[in-house]
Amino acid sequence: MKLKFPLLLMLFLVFLIAIPSGVLAEDFTALRHDYQQLVKSSQLQRQRTNWEKLIVRFDRFTLQQTRDKNIEKAFFLLARTWDGLSKASGSRRDAEEAVNHYLDMAERFPHSRLTDDALFLAAQIAEQQLNDKVVAYNFYLQLIKQVPDGDMVGEAQKNLDRLPVPAEKKPAIVYQPKQPSYQTVGDAPRLVKIRYWSGPAYTRIVLDLTAPVVMKPHYLKGENPRLYFDLLYTKLGADLPAIIPIRNGLVKQVRSSRFDEQRTRVVIDLNRVAEYKLTALENPQRLVIDIKGQPLQVGLSSEPPKNKAVVPAADDSIALILSNSSDRQPALHVPQQMHDEGIHLIVVDAGHGGKDPGAIGPHKIYEKNVVLKMAHTLAKALRQQMGVKVLLTRSDDRYLQLRERTEYANQVGADLFISLHANATKNGKAYGVETYFLNLSKNNQAAEVAARENGTTLQEVGNLEGILFDLMANAKINESSRLAAEVQQALVAGLRPHYSRVRDLGVKQGPFHVLLGATMPSILIESGFISNYREEKRLTSANYRKRVAAGIVKGVKKYAATLDQVAKQ
Description:
Layout: H1 4-18, H2 28-40, H3 42-45, H4 48-64, H5 71-89, H6 92-108, H7 115-128, H8 133-146, H9 153-162, E1 190-198, E2 202-209, E3 214-220, E4 226-232, E5 235-236, E6 243-245, E7 251-258, E8 263-270, E9 276-281, E10 286-292, H10 318-321, E11 345-350, H11 367-386, E12 389-392, H12 402-411, E13 416-423, E14 433-438, H13 444-454, H14 458-463, H15 465-471, H16 477-495, E15 504-510, E16 522-529, H17 533-539, H18 542-561
Parallel strand pairs: 1-5, 11-12, 11-13, 13-16, 14-15
Antiparallel strand pairs: 1-2, 2-10, 3-4, 4-8, 6-7, 7-8, 9-10, 14-16
Helix pairs in contact: 2-4, 2-5, 4-5, 5-6, 6-7, 7-8, 8-9, 11-18, 16-18
């Protein structure tokens, strides 16, 4: 009898070990503890992956533990996690997700004591982060009407009195509660299109969907290798071909069919076993599958570039790398994973140049000249302080197309891409420094900056969104966001002890042509307003340019120090 309890205990432990990860239910107490640990640590908050892991766990809890006594708190903390991520990333999309989740919580639990808090926080985000006072006003009003006895009613009323009364009589709520991630067969997502293209290092296949899907990948290796995906509760679009031939020497074809009542199956027939990477993207919803390997036939010339083996010997070696390439589409280059991870090569881009002067200051100072000097200063500082190799897209006053700059960075295998600029406005009163990374943006100010730097109109910036949806699939958006945050923080901290009125305009996102297609973390820095008399004078100062460079280097160092803690995408 003495042996019975240890034996049962051993069997129970074996049973626990045998359970696949994710089967055991999430514990709310552990979730709340991990959330509190995250919000207490500024270092943990800088890494997007920490927020995303917690969001996935809260999502799992709210889907699986619908009868748990803490379900209301879980929905509220899920929204709070998105809220914290939006403030850490500066991303408008994250802010909208936070609003969606607060509204979702308020709709699900209209009589909860947390409902007024959720509506109040949603209103704050709308007002402060999304700059939408009409929506904020209506959220405050909804709070007062829906939860008249809530403890946030007084604060909501104060904000209502402060905000202008919207012209619209009806609530102008533009954000909708997020739909649950599970689907019924009645409103099942549809696979509407399959696209593909070949690059020199991989073949990309994109599955366009109408909604998020639950997906299971499978890989069969052998004489006839194939990769297939079961999309649960997903219907096929009416016009979708059953077979899409590719035949590029790496991928034979893509087949899609209704496997059974619950599954649509997509099969990728391969010529040989190859590694693959799967990425799920939103807005629009799609699955991106990258099959790694060099096709036998690709869209570009099969003849290797003559300059491929030439090691760039000087900063102006972009001419060697890009010779005879201006009339074709840029070749996407995905650097192979190396055992020695880290930052070894940085491409610094001096904006504008040649026939494109960029912005012009009140004393006729050209942006192209200021940022060229700054690029040389930054390159020198990076080499000396970090021991990395630095290449310039241009080392003199020459004109380069915007796409040539990231194409160059891709082809030389850069680990980071930093584009330097000086901002400008018509009235000349604006001042400050800001850092951008590539993303879709509905922010009018960001769109205006992008239009000026792109040399396009605001309308053309809007038309760029369709291109961005695909190019962003290959961009290091999360890592670019972290790099931008570190650089912006270090830049402002480095300038303020030496100059008065240094305004921190923060980290923003925008559709910048010069960042399109970059396969490494990439940012665009507006180092000051050349249209402002005071900042024009600073930008012409060698000391100011050195301090800007020092701040950028410090930010890059901080970013590099966290690379080993961040899951590579």
